[in-house]
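[Automated response] Your request has been received and processed.

Submitted sequence:
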Amino acid sequence: MLRLATYASAATATLLIAAKLVAWFMTDSVAILSSLIDSLLDLGASLITLLAVRQAMVPADSEHRFGHGKAEPLAAIAQAGFIAGSAALLMIEAVGRLIDPRPIAATEVGLAVMGLSIIATFALVAFQRYVIARAGSVAIKADSAHYRADLAANLGVIAALAVSGYFALPFVDAIFGVLIAIYIAYSAWAVGSESLQMLMDRELPDEDRERIKKIALSYPDVEGVHDLRTRRAGPDTFIQMHLDFNGQLSLNRVHATADAVEKEIMEAFPDAEVLVHEDPVTPKASSGTPQQMEPDKTDE
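Generated structure:
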């Protein structure tokens, strides 16, 4: 499913590049040029995503014991760079057209191509949303983010073509180019910041951490949860925590409960790797609050 999403992305970008290239030659519109540049970079980003997803799906090995999931946020960072680059190029061209406006030609052709672009992009984004809901891929999510930005940008291009071509206001085309460049730059920041947080091993959201604790504490033998550590690496989630058990319980009972906690958490977070450490505690005679059991030092 993940690979199919990357193939669909690359194919869509290739189709739109061909159509927009023809439209730009015929209209000489900076708004269409902006969309063409974006599609060219979309193709580069989609190819990076394809390679990253393939690498992230490689199983863990002796040299990468935690798998290869961080290939996805690395690819997303690269995508952010592509998107930012397209914004900069577009801004340069749009400002030049503001200084020296040019009339728009073959408006109908440009509108038809941008209509095709919107239909193809909308279909791709809908499919990507389905894949993200099932697999949670950050690379596909980043890819989808700039295609969603493309939808808004394409609507802006249509408005620019209509106003500039039918009302003889060529400077409007350049203004829309500037606005679209700003929007694309914002998309680059959003994609890059999320990927950077994943590379820095940021904790899961608070609601997910509370859900993990709630699952563990739902077992009567579990008296407490501490040292909960979580992180994501592409499609993989890692969860580590310490569970407190009464020190008088048998090892078999403690182990069975810990296994049950791990299993339920893995059901709640598919594809997660869960590591539980069991800590023995014993009640204080005076307060009834648990404390860590000290190791026996009589033999030292």
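Summary generated for your ticket: The helical segments are 2-27, 30-56, 71-99, 107-135, 138-166, 170-199, 206-217, 251-268. Strands lie at 222-233, 236-246, 272-283, 290-292.
If you did not submit this request, please reply to this message.
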